[in-house]
Amino acid sequence: MEREVWNSKIGFLLAATGSAMGLGNVWRFPYITGANGGAAFVLIYFIIVFSIGVPVMLAEFAVGRSSKLNAVGAFKKLKGGKWPVVGWIGIIAGFIILSYYSVIAGWTIKYFISSFTGLISPNVNTTTYFNQFTSNGLQNIFFQAIFILITIYVVYLGVEKGIETWSKILMPILILILLLLVIRGVSLPGAPDGIRFYLNPNFSEVTGRTILAALGQAFFSLSLGMGAMITYGSYIPKEISLPKSAFIVTFLDMLLALLAGFVIFPTAFTFGIEPGAGTGLIFITLPSIFALMPFGQIWSALFFLLLFIAALTSAIGLLEVSVAYVKDERNWSRKKAALALGTTAFIIGVPSALSNGTISLNLFGMQFLDAMDYLSSNILLPLGGIFVTLFVGWVIKDTALKEINLEGKFKFEKSWIWICRTIAPISIFLIFLAGIGLL
Ligand code: PFF
Asked: Which residues have C-beta atoms less than 6 Å from ligand 1?
């Protein structure tokens, strides 16, 4: 059977951007920034995104398009030996991420509905509201299940009809709404304090853990280190420039995260909400700002609807990685693969759905959901990143160079190979050691 390809250049770019832009930008970036002290973290994050993120994304696109295969199959075809293990790390990381990602995505469905049923009011204490909801295990599992079912359905529809069509119109609308919220946010009384926290760095609090958190956030947000961009890259037609695509996707992804911060921190400082409040940060701050706006219920509903869609385009990417694997390598049908793997991710996600107050489930001294997030983003994804760059830099250098130059010479090809060979893997490794306290 002929391999599926993206229907158009813009379709691919929007789908890859759709995979990158998701809860990672609007939910995870503000709360991780809040928990890591603010501005200094943001600066380190940007440096990492451009110096490591872009080269790793380009490396993944090159592996994907030159092999036209899934994350495991690509390594098998291009070199074989032990290399396919790298693809496996990706598949496992993707599963873990999807399991808790769907819990948070389920919250967006709940908040969409609640926008009309009492959440948006100056009399509501949004922290209490959030805590009450998240400690209701049954509701959490219910919304998580709905989210996974929708994800399964879209993946089942296939690359072009499902993923591409959905991503096209909706992402720009989300950016527009965020811009509007930024205007409201920066005119709040707490805005100066919020913006100072967000943009005025204090390096005295930076530790190895902060830098590892920034690295993990970069990998998570750009969907790197887990074969997603290898898989999406495998569907890219030959006439699309890979280096340009890597830049565009990264730039848009960063823009969305940056905007989210301009809404969240002014709001947090205005309403006396701790910026380090944890996973609930946006669910606590945003309803407070909506309550102050005319037609707040409608804005709230629209916002959570779009966030849900952003989460969906990312979850599709997460599930597609393992679906592509069983489809290519084990000849499963798309339908069977989407159903079986989606259901498995749901089951693995149940402890995460319950760990926010229903039961006390801790791992490595964190709540279960946070522990899964830490394990996948800060450990497995960077590990995937180390091996992908080493693979491109040392094992398939010539193939990779040919692949990225197909549409015209890439000016920075030498620097890119150099980064893949040494700078990226070494710095990821050092950050990793520093982050777990070994350096
Ligand atoms: N990048 C997505 C986000 O920021 O929400 C999360 C993600 C999607 C990670 C797809 C990995 C992936 F394959």
From this structure: 19-20, 22-25, 94, 97, 220-221, 223, 226, 228, 314, 317-318
Residue 136 identity: N
Which of 61, 318, 320 to probe ligand 1 with, by most ligand atoms within 8 A of CB? 318
Q: Is the pTM of this model over 0.85?
A: yes
Q: Report which ligand 1 atom has the smallest distance to the Cα of 23.
A: 5
CB 338 within 8 A of CB 152: yes
> Domains along the chain?
9-436 (1.20.1740.10)
85-103 CB burial, b ≥16 within 10 A, e <16: ebbebbbbbbbbbbbbbbb
- For 203-223, what is each residue's pLDDT tens digit? 988 999 999 999 999 999 999
